[in-house]
Amino acid sequence: MESIYQNSTDFILLGLITHPAFPGLIFAVVFSIFVVAVTANLVMIMLIRLDSRLHTPMYFLLSQLSVMDTVYICITVPKMLQDLLSKEKTISFLGCALQIFLYLTLIGGEFFLLGLMAYDRFVAVCNPLRYPIIMSPRVCLFMVLGSWAGGSLDGFMLTPVTMSFPYCGSREINHFFCEIPAVLKLSCTDTSLYETLMYACCVLMLLIPISIISVSYTRILITVYHMSSAEGRRKAFATCSSHILVVSIFYGAAFYTNVLPHSYHTPEKDKVVSAFYTILTPMLNPLIYSLRNRDVAAALRNVLRKHGFSRTLQVGHVPGKY
How far is the C-alpha of 157 from the C-alpha of 85, rounded, in Å? Predict the structure, then answer.
């Protein structure tokens, strides 16, 4: 009963910078990134939905990545922005648990989704004739549902255990959101066994998609190397380069957080890396795909052209007086 009472107390989030000298400047920068990230991802989702040329498995998976990134950044940044302007930087016990669950679900789902996107590129480059059959709408739907289910499984397993520990010491979380390692530091019991099991779980979740990505792109590189057409090699590389860049950014940060030993971690480094993949990555992903992808750029121009044309018609159609 005492443990439940203790766990019902609010936590205090110290923020990305514990005592910022210019909170207004930090707010402006983070808010700008947030607006760009949400806008860019929503535009990607809209373009993929509206343009029939983008109704392919690759863009269907990409639209799900944008959905995940949109929800992902909305979990942490609004609360962070609120704390920058408020003296009360508290988060309730249930709010902290919800943040952990959604964070784990989305980061786990993105792990699996990026691996499946690599498999999609492997089929497109190495088995183009069988691509419509292998990557059928039914298969794509199962891929997406599997990604969400795999991520939520991680959330359902780790969130209840994390929040069941008694937190009877300081309530100050040295972070800008409820990330598990930062929360566990406040526990007044030994959590080393749980942290070891959690480490093994995270490594396993990383190894599965990384293995798929490594095998897929190894086969892609071999196939591209043996292509006789320079144009074919260029198109194959252009198709895959954006995905490789996104994977490198996301998994690089995930590797630091989940694989490197504790001796490499400090609260300051952990917050910077967490900010990178919770704030910057959701903004970079749609920008990388849109700036490096001709199909997306063409779809955007098409939508803007149609919108501009319809507005011209509305302005030009003024009833005359007879």
Answer: 34
